[in-house]
Amino acid sequence: MAGGPYFDPSPPSAVVEKLKARFPDAVLETTEFRGELTVLVQGETLVELCRFLRDDPDCAFDMPTAVVGLHYLERDYEHEVVYQIYSLPKNHRLRLKVRLRAGETVPSVTAVWPGANWPEREAYDLVGIRFRGHPDLRRILMPNDWTTYPLRKDYPLSGFDLPEPHWGGQVPYDTDPGVEDQYYQQTLRTAGGRELNESRSNVNPNQEPGTNKQ
Questions:
Q1: What's the rounded Cα separation, in Å, for the pair 90 and 109?
Q2: What are the pLDDT digits (tens) for 38-51?
Q3: Using an 8 Å Cβ cutoff, are 109 and 133 in contact?
Q4: pTM of the model as a whole
Q5: Torsion over CA: 149, 153, 154, 158 (sign)
Q6: According to the CATH classification, is domain 12-132 in 3.40.50.970?
Q7: What are the strands of the beta sheet with 92-100, ordered from one edge?
């Protein structure tokens, strides 16, 4: 029905203008492509900005549909965090972006939207982005002792030329071959060896050099 809660006629561009008025120094750039609006914002004001987008009745963005981490090479920033947010009452969508230089972190938005918890962990796990204030920032897909980030642009797409694995699927490397060692310090596992390794109750750290030692 026209005029109902899911057919609010006010365009998302009005939300962006309100955001600029409320956070003039935090909104760095706005772009529109095929009807989709993207707002580049400063990371330090991200939580306050997101809380405004959630609580203001003209915005009412009550859920994140995705939190995505991106890695770039040869740019003046290393990472980009993309937040796709949605308003159930108004059927509006908006994209927020935060850019991070090497070594920078971004505040977690889980205090605003608890549904951002697992997507932020995935961005940390696969890309290496660290979210300050996250209640449980640990790996969600990769093994707990993994030290690399497989969705970074400098991770080799074709894998590695590896020798025959040792018992348990470990290979005799101190660092991943073919990857800059300032990022990675881990012995690799083979795909089949991980299952074998985890099914064993006794792990010999001398025989399996990839096992974390306390």
A1: 21
A2: 999 999 999 999 99
A3: no
A4: 0.72
A5: positive
A6: no
A7: 27-33, 36-41, 92-100, 79-87, 63-71
